[in-house]
Specification:
mainly alpha, 2 domains, elongated
């Protein structure tokens, strides 16, 4: 994942506004740190990282002149897309990108992190699977609600 953050940085680095106070590297270091943090979060927490390109751009946009911001956003968006494609191709075998086995995202009653292995393709173990947000069921529930609104209740709309 290191190569994605460095690729973003290498392409946008020439456009960074120079910092007058120190040796001129402070703004570049902040941009590099933001790129690495965004890619790190994307790698380890992508399910809960909505709009990563927009988030990264919002963090670094102040370090670029206004006439270069569109170019910077396109570079970020392209590289984040490539990183997402790469992550989608990786097998989900219970081993994280750091080589450590994945663990459940829940906490026990004592407040310590759960150490069990999550279900395949999920964030929670069998004991905590009730904490998983059911997105599929939510869509079905909304369609049932919409259909019930279309039906008129008995006695409504009939002549008296």
């Amino acid at each position: 994942m290191y190569r994605f953050s460095r690729s973003i940085y290498r392409e946008i680095c020439p456009y960074v506004i120079e910092d007058d106070r120190s040796n001129g590297c402070t703004n570049r270091q902040r941009v590099l740190d933001a790129c690495e943090a965004a890619i790190r979060r994307l790698a380890f927490d992508r399910r809960y990282f909505a709009r990563p390109a927009r988030s990264l751009f919002g963090e670094v946009r102040t370090y670029f002149p206004i006439n270069e911001q569109l170019h910077v956003y396109k570079v970020i968006e392209t590289n984040i897309g490539l990183a997402l494609e790469h992550l989608a191709r990786l097998p989900e075998d219970g081993i994280g990108l750091d080589g450590q086995p994945t663990s459940c995202r829940a906490h026990t009653r004592k407040g310590t992190p759960c150490q069990r292995t999550p279900l395949p393709g999920r964030d929670y173990c069998p004991s905590h699977k009730h904490l998983e947000e059911p997105l599929e069921g939510l869509v079905e529930d909304l369609s049932v609600i919409d259909e019930s609104r279309l039906e008129a209740p008995a006695g409504v709309g009939t002549p008296a």
